[in-house]
Every structure is written in C-alpha cells, then in structure tokens.
Amino acid sequence: MSNTVLVERRADLVEITLNRPERLNSFNEEMHVALYQAMEQARDTRARAILLTGSGRGFCAGQDLADRDPSTMDGPPDLSQTLTQFYNPLIKLIRSLPMPVVCAVNGVAAGAGVNLALACDIVIAADSAKFIQSFANVGLVPDSGGTWFLTQLLGEARAKALTLTAYPLSAEKAEDWGMIWRAVPGEKLLNEARDLAMQLSEGPTTGFAHTKVAIRAANSNDLDQQLDMEAQSQKICGQSADYAEGVSSFLAKRKPNFCGH
C-alpha cells in the first residue's frame, strides 16, 4: 500500500493515518486510492472499529489544488469526475461500514477534509483544530457530503453561514454546536481517541451496526417506520451471542466479554 496512508492493526482496531504532512494531508489520487483500500480492507478483515487521523500539524486540507490547477491544463477541469471517481465512493463507503469509525482531528480540517471527518461516527478534535469549509475561497460548492452533513448537524442558518463565508470554526465551538463529539487538549487527543476506539472494538459489534443504521434512517423515517425498524433490529440483536453475554455478565456483575456477533 502507498505510504500516503499508514495502517496499523491493534487487536480488533484498525488505525488509519493520512500521511502527506508536507501538504497538510491534502488528497492526491494516490492518497484517494490508498485510503479507500485501507477502509475496504478493514471491512473485509472484520475489524470491529476504525480510528482515522492525520500525521503532522493538520488533519486534512481537502483536495491538493496543485493537482487541479486550471492554468496547467488544456481547458477547464471537470471537477465532477473527481467527486464521482474518488470522494463520493469514499464517503459512501465510510457511511456504510458496520463498525464504529472514530475520527481524531489533530489539526486544521479544510474543504473536503472537514466532510471526511463528519462522515465518521464519532469526531474528537484537538482544541487547537479548526474546521473550514474553504470552498467559497476558490468559487466552489461544498462537496463530499458537506452540504448534507452541515445542514443535518447544524441547521440551514449555520450551514449557509459557514459555507458562504469559509469561517474557521474552532473545535470548541464545533463541540458546543453539536458538530463534533468532543474537543480535548491536543496532547491528549490521540490517547483519548485510541481509548475510545479500542473500547468500541471490544463492544457488541452487531448492536453497534444496527444502531448506526437506525440513527441514519431517522433522518427520513417517520415515527411509525422508525419503531418498526427498531423492533426488527432488536429481534436480530436479541438472538446474538453478544446479547446473551451482556445479560449473563450483567447478572453476574462482571465485565462482559463480547465476541462481536
């Protein structure tokens, strides 16, 4: 695999690190391919949790614009091709993964880098990190799910303000607004994110997967549909080995030893 993405397996946890620090981990095609492959491999090898972070002083600055500079091309670029070939499949893959995906935003997240983080299930950021929907600075529309994630998480007013002004949102304000889970001191970020991801990797994997699906569906379901979905999911989870272990450990007053199915 390309060294633009580093992958480390820790028991049932897969840690994935974006590794173009000299370019603030901005995407080129090589890193796109490597990150997609790393996520696919984590799914196919049945990892039970994923931790995504960045190397160096930034998390991800979005697209490397040196690769999309109109002055170096024969004509204007068709940026929809970049989205349909790379960004959109990556975001869809992350959203479809059955295991929890934790994102540790270690520094600036800009453009598609913000929306990559928001595609994950739980986002923890260093208190020095900033989230910048920088598309307005280059005359573009937020992509990689940005218009959807921001509107769902923050509402139309804040989504419009952040995207039209490219205002740099601090990690602490992002936590306060409910855009991310937590902002923590930078020196504690990776340890806290790893501890959380490891805890999730030892949890009831089937229940986690169904919980993720149900919460996503709540955006479009009415209450009756959601109640029916919860009942069906509970039927499946109630027949799992993890449910039996959870009840047994609760009654015995011991820590559960979930097997993930």
Helices, strands, pairings?
Blueprint: E1 5-10, E2 13-18, H1 29-44, E3 49-54, E4 58-60, H2 79-96, E5 101-105, E6 108-110, H3 112-118, E7 122-126, E8 130-132, H4 146-154, H5 156-165, E9 169-170, H6 171-177, E10 182-184, H7 189-201, H8 205-217, H9 223-238, H10 241-252
Parallel strand pairs: 2-3, 3-5, 4-6, 5-7, 6-8, 7-10
Antiparallel strand pairs: 1-2, 8-9
Helix pairs in contact: 1-2, 4-5, 8-9
Q: How many strands in all?
A: 10
Question: What's the overall geometry?
Answer: globular
The radius of gyration is 19 Å
Give the terminus-to-terminus CA distance.
Answer: 30 Å
SSE order, one letter for each helix or strand: EEHEEHEEHEEHHEHEHHHH
Number of domains: 2
Portion in strands: 15-25%
Return the CATH class of the largest domain: Alpha Beta
At CATH level 2, the architecture of the largest domain is: Alpha-Beta Complex
Could you give me the name of the CATH homologous superfamily of the largest domain?
Answer: 2-enoyl-CoA Hydratase, Chain A, domain 1
Taking the sheet with the most strands, its summary is:
6 strands, mixed
Give me the CATH fold name of the largest domain.
Answer: 2-enoyl-CoA Hydratase, Chain A, domain 1
- Class by alpha and beta content: alpha/beta
Mean pLDDT: 97
Question: What is the number of helical segments per DSSP (H or I, 4+ residues)?
Answer: 10
Overall helicity: 40-55%
Low-confidence segments, ≥5 residues, pLDDT <50? Answer: none
Looking across the biggest beta sheet, what order are the strands in?
1-2-3-5-7-10
